[in-house]
Amino acid sequence: MALGCLGYQEFHQRTLSATSSATAKINCFAAAAILLIFAIPPVLIGAVAASTDWNLTSYGSPSPFERGEDTLVMPIVLHYLTPTYVSIVGIGCIAAAVMSSTDSGLLAAASIFTSNIYKSLLRTQASEREIRWVIRICVVVAGLISTSLTSFEIKIHVLWFLSTVISYIVIFPQLFCVLFFKISNGYGAVMGMLVGLLLRLLFGEPLIGLPTILHLPGCTLEDGVYVQRSPVNTISMLAVVAGNLLFSYLFSLLIQKNLLPEKWDVLNMKVKQLPKQRTPTDSVKDPNDKICDTDVSEPMMSTGC
């Protein structure tokens, strides 16, 4: 889960907006410590709910865990075990945090699709007005899809875990390849993602009722459901990395040998990999270049350890 969260847009928004790479590193280490501290209150609230005699409250018995309401423990504890004003403030804070996260998620999904797919691939000449309408439509579509998830009997922590798994399998390998392998390109990223997702689907997922088709060593049948004992998420992630590098290399060869027709190069990799044509004026160095170079700030992202 820790590696999966490295691909989240919110993380890179904070690091790339820092004034320097040193500040970004400090923010990362400080956030890691603060997150550990923030994990203490939920643990305490869960312990209180587990040790409370609910017969002494208006909630009654059985307990929230026995009723299958364990995902609602926090609002239940605030409502039945705290004064009214504390309950109102606490639930209001939860609602505000949820709405803030929902708003960020909708805008992030809409902006990523509009910038990386629609503007870059589908409509490169799109106007600003068209881009605004696409963002609005994407927000509505993402909201409808998110709302439709509530119709499924899936607990919220399961959805959160699955989103982290998807990020670990799809996004983290792409980030790793881009940072440490210069050969990585768009075609390799797409093919690697498809390979990893296909493998993960074949491995199955009992949490959402996805049947197991590909059985790895250690796969056992429990209560009529096949359970994988092998690290299927890590295997899928490594398959994405291998597929990314392999297909990136193959497509680079096709581009270098002019075997890929230009009309099929939808990602414009041929243009990006062409060597820059030097002009006679490039050999004449401007005396002000040295001054300009010293004024350039330290790069935000560094691959050095």
**Spatial order of the strands forming the largest sheet:** 1-2
Chain-averaged pLDDT: 79
Total helices: the number is: 12
What's the N-to-C terminus distance?
Answer: 22 Å
Structural class: mainly alpha
The shape, in one word, is: globular
From N to C, what is the helix and strand string? Answer: HHHHHHHHHEEHHH
- Outline the low-pLDDT stretches: 279-283, 287-305
Radius of gyration: 25 Å
Number of strands: 2
Helix content: 55-70%
* Strand-residue proportion: under 5%
What does this structure look like?
The protein has 305 residues and is mainly alpha-helical. Among the domains are: 82-151; 156-275, no CATH class. It contains twelve helices and two strands, in the order H-H-H-H-H-H-H-H-H-E-E-H-H-H. It has helices spanning 2-5, 9-16, 21-38, 40-51, 73-81, 84-122, 128-148, 156-180, 186-203, 232-256, 269-273, 289-295, and strands spanning 220-222, 225-227. The protein has a two-stranded antiparallel sheet with strand order 1-2. A hairpin with a 2-residue loop joins strand 1 and strand 2 (225-227). The protein is globular and about 80 Å long. The model is unreliable at 279-283 and 287-305 (pLDDT under 50). Belongs to the sodium:solute symporter (SSF) (TC 2.A.21) family. Its main location: membrane. It is a multi-pass membrane protein.
